[in-house]
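Section 3.1: Structural characterization of target chains.
Under the original work plan, the team committed to producing a structural model for every single-chain target entering the pipeline before any wet-lab resources were allocated. The record below documents one such target. The sequence was received from the expression subgroup and is listed exactly as submitted; it comprises 190 residues.
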Amino acid sequence: MKSRRVIMVLLAVLARTTFAAPFDIASIDVQQYKADDYLRAAVSLQAIGREAACQALLASANTKPGPDVRFFVLCRMLFTQRGTNEFRLPGYYNAYYIEYVPEFKLAPIELVDGIPFLLTAKWGGGDGGGQEGAENYVRWCMANCDWSTYAFREATAKQKSDALAKFMSSNKLKQPLTDSQKNFLSVQIE
């Protein structure tokens, strides 16, 4: 009953955000990563504040037990490292990154001017030790991380294109991206 009440409050508050329709995390297509979906979610969740957003994330995570990349991406956007604590990857990832290097501190995403780019086309089970569920990762972030002070916002096509160009020329990349990798990133901002 309590989680239903939290969801109803969340929907009422989200209806007043800068996006026209209330946001539903379940509406994010996990097969086709689109930065706009995650920006919309981040804006909506930030609009209601940390406590309500955390409760909304938990309530949504409880509707689908097990690993869920949507929650992992949102947590990497909405939380930040606290002090010297590690901001660890979810236990779910055994990912094939565009190029995993320590400079990508928010893997499986990279934030460029507020635009979240997914760094991996494939993710899967861990090293045989099981997969971390979305609820567990949200709870871990709540206990071990700070709430981000970065204010996400809707992005124009130009802002997204500029962020992509900036990412592709980043010194974090140790070698030029392949055409396939460039395409993988480009479709994320269409």
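Residues 2-14 form the longest helix (13 residues).
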